[in-house]
Design brief:
Length: 284
């Protein structure tokens, strides 16, 4: 991807966009979100979202707090099912199959569509057992050493921990713990990795390591990331969805998708003034 060779009025300089690759098309989407609305009880918290996520692409969701981006992210692997009174209207398909069809097993959905959360959340186990946990739950008993090594290698952590696999995961730094959580998600062989603010608790050096890792993983996995960091979205994503928040007639806050496009377009030539105002820092 690329941006203008002059400083952007939106605060994203050419140096910010570090990864240069052609943005793939959306002819064969992994996810297709159609007229999606999400309720908590009677409150319509997110309204009328339409977007597609392409295979082996990084899709970023940005916007101010309370705009619904994390809520939308959780619909992609049915994590909202775990929240009392949460329900969805509209349609979310995964390779053309309705994720919310009653015949679809949400456990299998979450295996194929993994998730990494805002704060690193390793299990109170060894590094090895953190990675082996998912495969063991799925019934795998042999070849676990290979699974652990492969997952840690793909998460760029193997060289740092290969001699201390029996140590507690809590002995790792915050950035290492987050890469461990990514490795744990990879270990069950998902197709998609969802990341909800994966760098918000990390220092700048650890953040750059996670960004480098995301870019490498996108050669094999589809990634959807929620981030408050617009420079991060510009650096790593192929497409960006900008959400904003509004207030309805009853005074209830709700989120909505304003604009979804290729990342260079969002950051250099947004179609909606609300996107431009947010990116340039005039609100949010």
């Amino acid at each position: 991807m690329s941006v203008s060779n002059t400083e952007s009025s939106h605060g994203v300089s050419p140096d910010t966009v570090r990864y240069n690759r052609e943005v793939p098309g959306l002819d064969d989407p992994v996810f297709e979100v159609s007229d999606l609305s999400i309720y908590y009880g009677s409150n319509k918290a997110v309204r009328d979202v339409n977007m597609k996520v392409g295979p082996r692409q990084i899709t970023a969701m940005i916007g101010p707090s309370g705009c619904g981006k994390s809520t939308v992210l959780r619909t992609l692997n049915r994590m909202n099912d775990l929240i009392p009174e949460a329900r969805v209207e509209g349609k979310v398909t995964f390779h053309g199959e309705d994720l919310y069809d009653p015949a679809v097993d949400p456990i299998e959905v979450r295996r194929r569509i993994g998730m990494v959360f805002q704060k690193p959340n390793p299990f109170p186990k060894s590094i090895y057992d953190n990675i082996a946990f998912g495969p063991r739950i799925m019934g795998k008993r042999s070849g676990l050493d290979d699974v652990v090594e492969e997952a840690l290698t793909k998460s760029a952590l193997w060289d740092e921990v290969k001699d201390k696999l029996k140590d507690s995961a809590f002995a790792l730094s915050g950035g290492q713990q987050q890469r461990l959580c990514i490795a744990r998600a990879i270990a069950v062989n998902p197709e998609v990795i969802l990341m909800d603010e994966p760098c918000s608790a990390l220092d700048p050096i650890a953040t750059l390591k996670i960004e480098d890792l995301m870019y490498e993983l996108a050669h094999e996995f589809t990634i959807v990331i929620v981030t408050h960091n617009m420079q991060q979205a510009a650096r790593v994503s192929d497409r960006t969805a900008f959400f904003t928040a509004g207030v309805d007639d009853d005074g209830d806050r709700y989120g909505s998708l304003v604009e979804f496009d290729e990342t260079p377009t969002i950051f250099s030539k947004p179609a909606d003034k609300r996107t431009e105002d947010y990116i340039s820092g005039r609100f949010g």
